[in-house]
Amino acid sequence: MLGMMRPPNPFRPGTWRSPLRGPWLTSVLAVVLLVTLPIVTITGLLSYSAYGPQFGQAIPADVGWLRLPPFDWPTDPAWLYRLTQGLHVILGLMLVPVVLAKLWSVLPKLFTWPPFRSPAQALERFTLLLLVGGVLFEIVTGVLNIQYDYVFGFSFYTAHYYGAWVFLAGFVSHVALKLPRMTRALRSRSLRAELRTSRAETRPEPADPDGLVSPDPEPATLSRRGALGIVAGGTLLVGTLTVGQTIGGAARHTALLLPRGRDLGTGPNDFQVNRTAAAAGIEATQVGPEWTLELLGGPEPVRLSRAGLAALPGHAATLPIACVEGWSTTQHWAGVRLRDLAELAGVHDPASAHVRSLQRGGAFNQATLQANQVLHADSLLALRVNGADLSLDHGFPARVIVPALPGVHNTKWVRSIEFRRA
Predict the structure, then answer these.
(1) Same structural domain for residues 23 and 110?
(2) Are residues 224 and 202 in contact, defined by beta-carbon separation less than 8 angstroms?
(3) Could you give the CA distance from residue 264 to residue 274 in angstroms, rounded to a whole number?
(4) Region Disordered: which residues (predicted)?
(5) Structural domains in the chain (count)
(6) How far is CA 346 from CA 57, 240, 350, 419, in A?
């Protein structure tokens, strides 16, 4: 019945008339995404694992049969999370021009009429819906999360996690269905020859069964070389405006696409904070001379003032701190080893440690650390950074800093640590 109806715009065959569209150009863009999108997906899932889902502190906590294989997130190398999450955010943003170009190249396919003519075609269209819907949802929510703080009426972490699996299902299914056609299309033309073809010499591809090639193409206003150049240039531009948030230094000032994490807070500690003490509801009276750290898990609680902590054998380490939004920085920290505090509490071989903050609300006012994170030689309850006491915005009077740990789990304004044997 649908096939007998006159299709509305933009479903009419003559709507899409660019002579550049065709299986070859679509397949070239598809190859780029086939290589890079799995990297973005894998690094995103690794970020979820870095949050310690075995402790129920990754979001979402209960994912049913979508649960990832459990393992202890490594503490070496110290820059591991900085690498994986920086790659996830930077590469994800750089692929936006490629994804948009790929969608442009298949617009006739997205608007075929009738939508499907057979069960096999219906299956293909369904996988396309999962793929396109999934990737657009992940891009839009990911970009908004980077640019703005908590703008959603739902949990970004939950939506992004499930959205990744929807995209992954569509991606795998679509690749399985389209890989033979993509391979044939890539072999139909020489990339080197296309990169040498001028606009005046650009001709449409032969008609194809998918209907990507226009039956009535307009004269070329751009060569395929030019089209690929625009996409490549846009990708490099986005990368240039993004990568500085991870590599730091002078390049950080060029990171115009990652405005979150630019608040340096107050005091002498000149590097980023995601949440200031005021935003966390920390009051001056909570961190005054009466503040004490409580160590739990042993025969009796142990309480230490800041002066008492400073009198303990100290340790210093240069460690990065990286945020889920993509920014990271490396600073020189000094304080007391967590493993020394475990010994002081009377827990000589802790299986984990539960750290609580003075911050009363929020999803990250506490964190559970794995055994390897507690026992690492450079895992600290930091009191100073870069030779100065922690400022209030950076976690005064004491904060956790652990190699390769996501930034929000490096708990600030620590009030207690419970070392657990199991």
Answers:
(1) yes
(2) yes
(3) 9
(4) 195-218
(5) 2
(6) 26, 50, 10, 9
Q: Are residues 288 and 209 in the same domain?
A: no
Question: How many other CB atoms are there within 10 angstroms of residue 305's CB atom?
Answer: 14
The answer on 207 and 91 residing in a single domain is: yes
In terms of Cβ atoms closer than 10 Å to its own Cβ (0-12, 13-18, 19+), residue 103 is middle
Tell me, yes or no, whether 118 and 198 share the same domain. yes
pTM: 0.90
- Length reported for the chain: 422
Q: What one-character DSSP code corresponds to residue 22?
A: S
Q: Which residues pair with 357 in a beta bridge?
A: 414
Q: Determine the residue type at 232.
A: A
**Exposure letters 290-302 (e unless 16+ CB within 10 A, then b):** ebbbebbbbeeeb
Within a domain: residue 175?
yes
Give residue 149's identity as a one-letter amino acid code.
D
Q: The domain spanning residue 381 has which CATH number?
A: 3.90.420.10
| Per-residue pLDDT in tens (0 to 9) along the chain, 422 residues | 444 555 556 666 667 889 999 999 999 999 999 999 999 999 999 999 999 999 999 999 999 999 999 899 999 999 999 999 999 999 999 999 999 999 999 988 887 777 777 787 788 788 888 889 999 999 999 888 887 766 778 888 999 999 999 999 999 998 998 899 999 999 999 999 999 999 999 999 999 888 889 888 999 999 999 999 999 999 999 999 999 888 877 787 888 876 665 666 666 777 888 888 988 999 888 999 999 999 999 999 999 999 999 999 999 999 999 988 888 899 999 999 999 999 999 999 999 999 999 998 777 899 999 999 999 999 999 999 999 999 999 999 999 999 999 999 999 999 999 999 98
**One-letter identity of residue 187:** R
- Identify the domain containing residue 292 by its residue range: 277-420
Same domain, yes or no: 96 and 233: yes
Is 159 a member of any domain? yes
Same domain, 124 and 236: yes
Do 70 and 201 fall into the same domain? Answer: yes
